[in-house]
Each structure stands twice: as structure tokens, then as C-alpha cells.
């Protein structure tokens, strides 16, 4: 009974915390709310008219929504790069950042689920994925595996930080025997969510662009580059606008993770390019379309030839120790690397898999204004959720938000 009382107090105090703040905080939340409302309006148009208002067709049936879903799975998985050294290896340098990383993971997973709902056309068809009611088709379908691992990882990333913060809210230390098993499980689960997503694409035999043994490992490498890069940018913002001061050595350690992952990702990219273009076959046409265009169709060229130079530039700059330790250079590199991997893992991976079609027809895809509006709304939702989680967690960690025992 006492725990429910403490929980009620935590909810009340958290609500009070997230509804008060500086002028900049209120402007930020107002902006996110406006973008979410605009996204909801665009989504209402999609619900009324169906997926015909998007740029997707029966030729290219996955577009901006699934591109963002694929990318955000990696962002969510990247939290493990902070969880493992903090909870398992007891590295105190990561301790300040781990709760922020897990907050980003929760926000990213919520966005993943929202993008899946948007891509399915509407929430009314979700019952098909409910075991016992719909056609779940477990364990044969890789999609059902993806549903299980994503929701399981979301559960782990909510419960572990909640337990720790709940104890800190009461002025108590969290018991390692309670959260360490879950933390260890989340390490393996983070790898699983990305590998299962990669296997989902690899298992489609009619799409040779995705039939690549490196797809799973490259998913992980790009995730462990883009995810921690985003975490560094978020930590920089938190350092500037809150009293929660992240130490320089924490950011420098995360930067090393980004650097190594970016280098591995670039090596795998070069390996894939060699495989596609050194001894090309008719299965290389999707790659030719992506990088050089086919039959005068070249909608993706500006995207991929923006992503590759940004990727190379960021990786080269991060490789030099002196440049990486210059925070202005580091933040710039993290930003362009994040953008580059978003393009490469989004448009550069999903759309070319459908082009050309099984009969050689080239039907190009570009997102419509409705798709872009819904996408921006979902990203705003993720930022809104993370802001709420971060503000509450920071308040508890700074001791401003604590349980007041009534005498």
C-alpha cells in the first residue's frame, strides 16, 4: 500500500515538474505540440483517403514510414552502449548519461511503433497482430518476431530506469540484485531487435538488394554510430540548458564508441560497394539505381551522394584524437553522421529494394506532403516523450524531486 502511495506522489510531483519551466522550455513544448497536431491532421487525411495520399504504390510499398522505423530501431538499440558499461562493467563515467540514453531508447521505440501503425494505414488493422485473435503466425513470420523483440525491449527500457528512479525518489539506492539481471538481458535484447529487423529484410528472396550477409552486422555498426551520436548531441543540449552537468570525460568516452562504430560501418559500406560493382549481375540493378540511376530515373541520387560524403567526412574527422576532443568539431561530426546514416539507412536501404520491380519496371518513389507531415508529427511525439522523461529523471537525480514523508 505504501508503494502505491509513493507512486501516486511521484506521478503528482512529475506532472508538476513537466508543467513548469523556463520560457524556452515552454516554447519548445509548444512547438512540439503544434507539430504533433499538424501531424495528426495529416494522419486524419490518410485515415480518410487511405494510403493513396502517400507516395507509396503497389510497386514501392515501403517508403518514408518504414525508412524511419528501420533507422529508429538502431537508435533504440544504441542505449546498450551505455547500459553495459554502467550496469554490468560498473564504469562510473557513463553513470550520468545512462538514464538519458534509456530515455532516448524509450522515445525511439514509441516512434517505431507509431511509424508501423502509420504504414499499416491505421490502428484498426492492428488486431491482426494480436495472438489468438489475429493471424500472428508465430514462429514462422519474422514480422511477429520483430513485434515481440521491440515490445520486450521497450518493457525493459521502461522498467529498469523506473525502478532506479523510483528508489532515488525515495532517497534510497537501487538494489543491484534487482536491476542487473534485466540490464544484462537488455544487452542481448538490443542486439536482437536489430538483427531480427535485418533478418526481416534478408528473408525476402524476391528483393536481392537486401539478400546480403552483411546486412545484420552493418545494421548494428550504423546503429552504434548514429545512436550514441544522437546521445552526445542531447547531452550537449542538457549541459547548456539544465543544471545537470555531464562531465567532459563521459562525452569523450561515448565519442570513442561513435568513432569505432563509424569506422566499422564505413568498412562494411566499402565491402558492399565492391560486391555490387566489381562483378555486377542483374541483381546489382537496385544498387546501380541508387548510386547512378537507371534508364534516366535518378530520384535518389541527391540523397545518397549527400549521405556518403557526410559519412566519410564525419568518420575521418572523428578518427583524429585532437579533432574528436574539440567539442565544436565533435558536435558537428555527430550531427552530420546522424543525418548521413538516417539517409543511408532510410531511403538508401528501403526504397532501392523495390526498384526495379520483378518484371524490370522502374516506378520511382518520393514522399508526399502528407507523409512528411505525419513523419514530422511522430518525430515531435518522440521528442515530447523524451523531454518529459528527461525532465523528470533530471529532477530526481538532482534531488529536486523527492518523496516528502508526511508526519
TrEMBL record:
The keyword Transmembrane helix applies. Keywords: Cell membrane, Membrane, Transmembrane, Transmembrane helix. It comes from the Bacteria. It is found in: Cell membrane. It is a multi-pass membrane protein. The keyword DNA damage does not apply. Belongs to the NrfD family. PANTHER family: POLYSULPHIDE REDUCTASE NRFD (PTHR43044:SF2), PTHR43044. This is Polysulfide reductase NrfD. It comes from Flavivirga amylovorans.
Amino acid at each position: 500500500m505504501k508503494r502505491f502511495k509513493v507512486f501516486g506522489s511521484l506521478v503528482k510531483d512529475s506532472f508538476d515538474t513537466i508543467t513548469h519551466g523556463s520560457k524556452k522550455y515552454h516554447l519548445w513544448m509548444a512547438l512540439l505540440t503544434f507539430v504533433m497536431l499538424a501531424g495528426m491532421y495529416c494522419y486524419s487525411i490518410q485515415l480518410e483517403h487511405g494510403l493513396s495520399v502517400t507516395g507509396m504504390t503497389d510497386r514501392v510499398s515501403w517508403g518514408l514510414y518504414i525508412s524511419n522505423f528501420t533507422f529508429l530501431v538502431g537508435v533504440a538499440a544504441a542505449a546498450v552502449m551505455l547500459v553495459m558499461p554502467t550496469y554490468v562493467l560498473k564504469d562510473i563515467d557513463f553513470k550520468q548519461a545512462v538514464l538519458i540514453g534509456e530515455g532516448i531508447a524509450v522515445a525511439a521505440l514509441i516512434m517505431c511503433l507509431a511509424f508501423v501503425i502509420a504504414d499499416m494505414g491505421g490502428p484498426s488493422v492492428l488486431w491482426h497482430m494480436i495472438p489468438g485473435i489475429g493471424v500472428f503466425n508465430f514462429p514462422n513470420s519474422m514480422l511477429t518476431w520483430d513485434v515481440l523483440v521491440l515490445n520486450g525491449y521497450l518493457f525493459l527500457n521502461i522498467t529498469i530506469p523506473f525502478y532506479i528512479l523510483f528508489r532515488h525518489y525515495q532517497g534510497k539506492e537501487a538494489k543491484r540484485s534487482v536491476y542487473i539481471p534485466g540490464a544484462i538481458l537488455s544487452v542481448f535484447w538490443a542486439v536482437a531487435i536489430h538483427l531480427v529487423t535485418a533478418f526481416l529484410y534478408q528473408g525476402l528472396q524476391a528483393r536481392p538488394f537486401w539478400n546480403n550477409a552483411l546486412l545484420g552486422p552493418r545494421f548494428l555498426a550504423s546503429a552504434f554510430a548514429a545512436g550514441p551520436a544522437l546521445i552526445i548531441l542531447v547531452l550537449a543540449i542538457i549541459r547548456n540548458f539544465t543544471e545537470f552537468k555531464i562531465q567532459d570525460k563521459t562525452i569523450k568516452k561515448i565519442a570513442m564508441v561513435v568513432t569505432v562504430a563509424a569506422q566499422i560501418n564505413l568498412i562494411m559500406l566499402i565491402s558492399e560497394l565492391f560486391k555490387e560493382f566489381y562483378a555486377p549481375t542483374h541483381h546489382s540493378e537496385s544498387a546501380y539505381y541508387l548510386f547512378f540511376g537507371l534508364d534516366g530515373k535518378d530520384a535518389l541520387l541527391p540523397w545518397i551522394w549527400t549521405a556518403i560524403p557526410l559519412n566519410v567526412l564525419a568518420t575521418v574527422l572523428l578518427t583524429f584524437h585532437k579533432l574528436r576532443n574539440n567539442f565544436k568539431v565533435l558536435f558537428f561530426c555527430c550531427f552530420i553522421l546522424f543525418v548521413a546514416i538516417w539517409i543511408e539507412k532510410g531511403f538508401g536501404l528501403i526504397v532501392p529494394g523495390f526498384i526495379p520491380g520483378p518484371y524490370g519496371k522502374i516506378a520511382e518513389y518520393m514522399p508526399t506532403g502528407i507523409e512528411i507531415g505525419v513523419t514530422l508529427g511522430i518525430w515531435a511525439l518522440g521528442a515530447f516523450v523524451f523531454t518529459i522523461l528527461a525532465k523528470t529523471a533530471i529532477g530526481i537525480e538532482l534531488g529536486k524531486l523527492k518523496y516528502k514523508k508526511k508526519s
